[in-house]
Specification:
Radius of gyration of chain A: 23 Å
CATH superfamily of the largest domain in chain A: FAD-linked oxidases, C-terminal domain
Largest sheet of chain B: 4 strands, parallel
Number of helices of chain B: 18
Number of helices of chain A: 19
Number of strands of chain A: 19
Strand order of the largest sheet of chain A: 14-16-15-18-19-17
Helix content of chain A: 25-40%
CATH topology of the largest domain in chain A: Vanillyl-alcohol Oxidase, Chain A, domain 3
Distance between the termini of chain B: 25 Å
Helix content of chain B: 40-55%
CATH architecture of the largest domain in chain A: 3-Layer(aba) Sandwich
Number of strands of chain B: 9
Structural class of chain B: alpha/beta
CATH class of the largest domain in chain A: Alpha Beta
Structural class of chain A: alpha+beta
Number of domains of chain A: 3
CATH class of one domain in chain B: Alpha Beta
Oligomer: heterodimer
Chain lengths: ~525, ~425
């Protein structure tokens, strides 16, 4: 299906010649994404990495152009799917009658307010672009585990948003301040301080008036199911150490002078009970830049840049409950204090730091931690991975979820559908001094083998069922009508309220609800 | 990359967009964070390496068919290889090789190369050069006072562009070698196009014919060392020829040779060149000139879905391109002040001329050149220099188009200035590259 000529012309008049394409090559390219094959199979479709093909792709360059595009979509009853850097199946249209709004041309860092610690960005500014510019002021931003190449705006407004540096930089849902938002009917909504009539600015997200953050993104974001976000202010944080460093050498064997006040600890807590105690205590002390429970296999992965180098590290993989902690500081005194606290806790909990004794990682690991690149190591074993589970709750619930998932994972490892991470492949990090935690279970599959894709999809389905059965809460990827209807009845019927929001804000159901919720019951 | 590897690899793109930027860990500013001229210019994801990999997959799956639109996207790529350097930090994909193979497939299906590129290829087949110039005029660049030693074991492979279009580079190169009393010969009427424009646009069979013609004559003449002033010819001989046929001769770029001659005192730089200069790394001399390392290992399945290579397969990430020789050489020129752009070495931003883009899509090439010129201007340099006649041509075009105060000199011309003999005998030549 292609756009009618009249509609094409109107869209083109908005975005300009060369910024719209309805040819089969470009539209097919926009139908592809990582893991689409799994999501297709989970929806009883062929396990191919292509979604429905959009009718056209448009490239607006301003909020006003986005607004006009959205109004045209309403006029012609064409569903739109907005995307920024575009990683993941959530960027894909769910219906044939759709267009993609690619926000690539909106790539300005609008403002860096180093005194009030926030930056305002457009959709196509990447995490590393923002980070490198704010590093010039000695500041850091939160980056999701997906990596530094993804959009901070997308993560802050539309996705989950945990990251490796969450103990020190929080969570995307918590970092979002004022927002500029083109609603599904084309109205422009400005949230927080940016919505003030006089002196609008971006410094505050939840006023004046009632906060709409819950409606705007809720727990996991609407994935373009409720309009298009065109500007967002995100919180900034002091950079954890000196920013005066250079990554030397050549890819993939870079070298790095580890900053003076940076130290890594990898400790085997032995069991989940002890791990919980240790993590809670470390986070209570508020000393960590990074504090993650990673399975033994995942620890091997973050220290490796190829599958071959990962296999060298099998002894590390034997750890039962490894905890990876990085402390950083800007002064010697601060560093000494944090080290003393860590020494005390190591002694108290009878732990051993294997770094420098049993294992010494290459210095580039530290640079990757500082530039938020560690999540990408999930791909090195099989080339494909996806997370199942995904709990945001107490450490105890997260670990219960981890534990319950192990036999299920092992079942699919035995079936040779997913790769062998001993069944324990999990990542867990804390937020806000250990008051709550995030856990997900990255699982490796091979997207080039149909059996692996199908097996991975079945595993994810069963993992979701397990969450229901064991009362573990909604998983990381609770998205789309089917999933919300599965979990909603067990969670205060939240899905009914979600549906009301969708109906109210998007009366024509024009903002693609494929990864959000449809306005009507199926 | 064989057919099986290609078919497997095109299923593995993560659509992560890393191919659009210099490696994430190396990004130093938002302004200079990008690496791909094509996506920078055309914006639709299809114009990135990842997009082209999806096109390759969609084509294999029969979701799309070759078309004018498809050709436009596949050929609007300078094949600069920046995507491959960025992607391969953690991944094992070969984006550049996939693009080259995709072009080969299009040619084999009766599509491609682009019409203007085909004209160059026809010219190479008819006249041994892409410029429709008579083969017998290949030596027209050669001034009478250049000493050629017909018995030398070192060959200066002049290349079509320096022979016909950028004669000042050929002349400066020859004069520098003369100044060093470094004996060299040329192949005269036996020098044929290296085949780079054919290979890059996907006509593999014609490329192999060209390669065989050149290697046959080089072997027959007993040549031991070949010196190139053209980065494109250099890369083709050094990296692409050995993939098809054994090559028993040494390959040197002039920047390597001149640096050696300076080090052993065979060249004496007597004159100050008080210029502030920035150096542009040509893709074909930099990241793309890294040779393939022979790998004779085995793939071992460690567990279901997980295989490893024993020993580990070397990754070609641009590390072994030629970066230091030109910089060392410039730093040895008395009075010259070398200052760097932000995107250099394996992260250099393409001049915009490669992969047949200058011939098929001149506007795209020019816009890319302007981007690079602006980056050079921001260093505060007076001069931008490089070591490739393609880059030279496109960057000069960019300077004119941008009305920039920068001047371009080939690195051999700067060296000649330092030797006290400015390059006088250069006639105006057409600014055209294949």
């Amino acid at each position: 299906m292609v756009l009618e000529k009249e509609a094409f012309k109107e869209f083109q008049d908005v975005v300009g010649v060369g910024n719209i394409d309805d040819g089969d090559v470009i539209t097919n390219v926009y139908a592809y994404n990582w893991c689409m094959e799994i999501f297709n199979y989970m929806e009883a479709k062929d396990p191919v990495p292509f979604s429905p093909i959009p009718k056209a792709v448009v490239l607006p360059s301003t909020t006003e152009e986005v607004q006009q595009v959205v109004k045209l979509c309403n006029k012609y009853r064409i569903v739109f799917k907005a995307q920024s850097t575009g990683l993941g199946p959530w960027n894909q249209p769910s219906v044939d009658n759709s267009i993609i709004i690619d926000l690539r041309r909106m790539n300005n860092i609008v403002k860096i307010d180093e005194k009030n610690l926030y930056a305002v960005v457009e959709p196509y500014v990447s995490g590393s672009q923002l980070q490198v510019e704010i590093m010039k002021y000695g500041l850091n931003c939160h980056m999701p585990g997906a990596g530094p190449m993804v959009s901070p705006l997308a993560s802050a407004t539309s996705m989950n948003g945990p990251g490796f540096t969450s103990p020190s930089t929080g969570h995307s849902a918590r970092n979002v301040l004022a927002v500029e938002w083109v609603l599904p009917d084309g109205e422009i909504m400005r949230l927080g301080a940016y919505g003030q009539k006089n002196n609008p600015d971006f410094f505050y997200g939840d006023g004046p008036g009632p906060s709409l953050r819950g409606i705007m993104r809720g727990w996991a974001g609407t994935k373009s199911g409720l309009g298009v976000f065109t500007k967002v202010a995100v919180k900034l944080f002091p950079y954890p150490c000196s920013t005066d460093f250079i990554i030397k050498g050549n890819s993939p064997d870079y070298d790095f002078d580890i900053p003076d006040f940076m130290k890594l600890y990898v400790m085997d807590c032995g069991n989940f009970k002890k791990l919980e105690k240790v993590m809670l205590r470390i986070e209570e002390e508020e000393i960590s830049f990074m504090c993650s429970y990673l399975s033994g296999f995942a620890v091997m992965a973050i220290f490796s840049n190829s599958i071959e180098s990962l296999m060298d590290k099998v002894p590390i993989g034997q750890m039962k409950a490894p905890l990876v902690v990085i402390i950083t500081a800007r002064t010697k005194q601060e560093f000494t204090y944090k080290q003393k606290v860590m020494d005390f806790l190591i002694k108290k909990f009878k732990l051993e730091n294997i770094i420098g004794t049993i294992y010494t990682p290459k210095p580039i690991f530290y640079a990757e931690a500082l530039r938020s690149n560690l999540g990408l190591h999930g791909f090195i074993a099989t080339g494909g991975f996806q997370s199942s589970k995904g709990v945001a709750d107490t450490a105890a619930v997260c670990l219960r979820s981890t534990k319950s998932n192990i036999p299920l994972k092992q079942e699919f490892i035995k079936k040779k559908a997913i790769a062998n991470d001993f069944g324990e492949g999990t990542w867990m990090t804390s937020y806000e001094s250990g008051h709550y935690f995030h856990m997900e279970s990255p699982t490796m599959f091979d997207q080039t083998e149909e059996n692996s894709v199908k097996g991975m999809a079945e595993y994810m389905e069963k993992s979701n069922q397990l969450d229901l059965l064991k009362h573990l809460g909604a998983p990381f990827f609770v998205e789309g009508t089917r999933m919300h209807e599965l979990f909603g009845p067990h969670m205060s019927n939240y899905h009914l309220w979600l549906r009301k929001i969708k109906e109210t804000f998007d009366p024509n159901n024009i903002s693609d609800s494929g990864f959000y919720i449809s306005p009507q019951n199926k | 990359m064989n057919e099986q590897e290609y078919k497997l690899m095109i299923k593995r793109c993560l659509r992560c967009s890393i191919c659009k930027w210099i490696p994430q860990l190396q990004i130093k500013s938002q302004k200079y964070s990008t690496i791909c001229p094509s996506i920078d210019m055309f914006n639709f994801h299809a114009y990135s390496a990842g997009g082209r990999i999806i096109i390759a997959l969609a084509l294999e799956m029969g979701k799309i068919k070759p078309s004018k639109d498809l050709m436009d996207i596949v050929y609007k790529c300078t094949e600069c290889g920046g995507c491959a350097v960025a992607c391969k930090f953690l991944n094992t994909l070969e984006p550049l090789e996939i693009i080259v193979k995709l072009r080969e497939k299009l040619v084999s299906l009766g599509y491609g190369p682009m019409p203007r590129q085909q004209q160059y290829i026809d010219s190479i087949k008819n006249y041994n050069n892409p410029y429709n110039e008579p083969h017998e005029k290949r030596l027209a660049w050669l001034p009478n006072d250049i000493k050629i030693d017909p018995h030398a074991k070192t060959l200066y492979f002049v290349g079509c562009t320096s022979s016909y279009r950028r004669k000042e580079i050929a002349i400066a190169t020859a004069r520098v070698m003369n100044a060093a009393n470094y004996p060299f010969r040329i192949l005269s009427e036996n020098e044929y196009c290296c085949g780079s424009p054919i290979l890059r646009t996907g006509d593999k069979n014609s490329f192999i014919n060209q390669l065989n013609k050149n290697i046959d004559i080089i072997e027959k003449e007993g040549i031991k060392t070949i010196v190139f002033s053209c980065a494109g010819c250099y890369d083709t001989f050094k990296v692409d020829y050995p993939l098809e046929r054994d090559c028993n001769f040494k390959i040197l770029h002039t920047t390597e040779l001149f640096n050696e001659l300076l080090d052993i005192g065979q060249l004496n730089l007597i004159k100050k060149v008080p210029l502030t200069v920035t150096y542009h790394d040509p893709c074909h001399l930099g990241r793309n000139s890294e040779p393939y390392e022979e790998w004779d290992g085995d793939e071992l399945q460690m567990m279901p879905l997980v295989s490893i290579n024993m020993p580990e397969k070397p990754k070609r990430c641009g590390k072994y391109g030629i970066y230091d020789s030109p910089r060392d050489l410039l730093n040895k020129i008395p009075g010259l002040n070398l200052i760097e752009m932000e995107r250099i070495r394996e992260y250099s931003y393409c001049c915009g001329a490669g992969g047949g883009v200058k011939s098929a899509f001149p506007e795209f090439a020019l816009k890319t050149a302007k981007t690079r010129i602006e980056e050079a201007e921001n260093t505060g340099a007076d001069i931008i220099t490089s070591a490739c006649p393609f880059c030279s041509t496109n960057l000069k075009d960019g300077i004119v188009e941008k009305d920039s105060n920068l001047k371009f000199y080939d690195i051999s011309e700067l060296l000649l200035m330092a030797l006290g003999s400015p390059n006088k005998s250069i006639k105006e030549s057409s600014m055209e590259v294949a």
